[in-house]
Amino acid sequence: MAILFGKNYSRGELERHIGHLSQIAGVRLMELQDGQESCVRIADVRSGSGLRFQISLNRGMDISLAEYKGMSLAWRSPQGDVHPSYFDPKGMGWLKSFPGGLMTGCGLTTAGAPSIDAGEELGIHGRLSNLPASNTKAETEWAGDRCVFKVSGVIRENVIFKENLALYRTIEVELGKSTITLRDKVVNEGFRRSPLMMLYHINLGWPLLDEGSDVHLNARSMKPRDDEADKGAASAMRIPAPISGYKEQVFYHDLIADSGGFASAVLANRKLGLGLFARYRQKELLRFIQWKMVAEGEYVLGFEPANCLVEGRAKERGRETLQFLEPGETREFLVHIGVLDGNAAIDQFESENNLS
């Protein structure tokens, strides 16, 4: 059964009221046509609950625009959904085409700061977000009275004489619900051992992110990344109004998973009665990074589940924490991003997941 407009509907009951499912929900494929966004293929998804989001098929199947009942959930950069042909892989060049959006993928072989690792020059956050998906497919699947919208594709990162990795990604949402699920499988399809760095860069923005909203976690500890973050450690969980000249602060949280092995974080805006959670399987994503950037115009909070920190691949190798995939090996990741509608829903989620 789908809950729509406060009532449960079977498939048959819905079909009596509408001419086509697209009247209330569905997936539509389209293409952007202006400026640096030209030729970017988009899957536009509406769940029927008020949740709408767009998947950039040319950009690693990132989730760009996202809104709930007309309210934006994600911060969007001035660049927009830049076509990957404009990607600058050197140094900090990734930032020239960073669109923000609800989720930007970082990886597959490096993430975090630029570095020189084993003689290879690596730019910030890797190539994943600027690689186009192939074999893309949008599906509407009914199973009895349950309907799920799915978008899937394959993103490949390969270099002659080096890595040959494939990310098989499926993004889905159920009719009438407000939780997006990412099911990722990374396969080493080559014959060489390859580094694997995965980071889900979830970018929350106004009006969800606003003065008085706050972050809720269940963590053993929190560590500021550097001296700048140390200045804001005492107020890391609280969101102020935009601040002129603010410098980014990054915090490492050691989250406690629940009995099912999932860790969670929530941004709650109780004035608006709106929250957003990230919930992910911690076995593969041992790290959780909070990126706090509350400057004017760059007013964004990042939730970043990852299998690495954000100081670059060279430091991961030096700490002996760099992960690898052997030839033929597979690693699977599972991430949920969901909306909490109303303070009661926020309270319930926080209580069920022991968040404070």
Sequence of secondary-structure elements = EEHEEEEEEEEEEEEEEEEHEEEEEHEEH
Task: Identify the strand order in the major beta sheet.
Answer: 11-12-13-14-25-21-20-17
Q: Helix share of residues?
A: under 10%
Parts with pLDDT < 50 across at least 5 consecutive residues: none
Written description of the protein model:
This protein is mainly beta and 356 residues long. 8% of the residues lie in helices and 45% in strands. It has helices at 11-17, 227-231, 313-318, 343-352, and strands at 2-4, 7-9, 26-31, 41-46, 51-56, 62-68, 71-72, 103-106, 115-117, 120-122, 134-143, 146-158, 164-174, 179-188, 194-196, 199-204, 214-217, 219-224, 249-255, 262-269, 274-281, 287-294, 299-306, 323-325, 330-341. It has an 8-stranded antiparallel sheet with strand order 11-12-13-14-25-21-20-17. Strand 11 and strand 12 (146-158) form a beta hairpin. The protein is globular, with a radius of gyration of 20 Å.
Summarize the structure.
This protein has 356 residues and is mostly beta strands. The chain has helices at residues 11-17, 227-231, 313-318, 343-352; strands at 2-4, 7-9, 26-31, 41-46, 51-56, 62-68, 71-72, 103-106, 115-117, 120-122, 134-143, 146-158, 164-174, 179-188, 194-196, 199-204, 214-217, 219-224, 249-255, 262-269, 274-281, 287-294, 299-306, 323-325, 330-341. The protein has one domain: Distorted Sandwich (Beta-galactosidase, Chain A, domain 5).
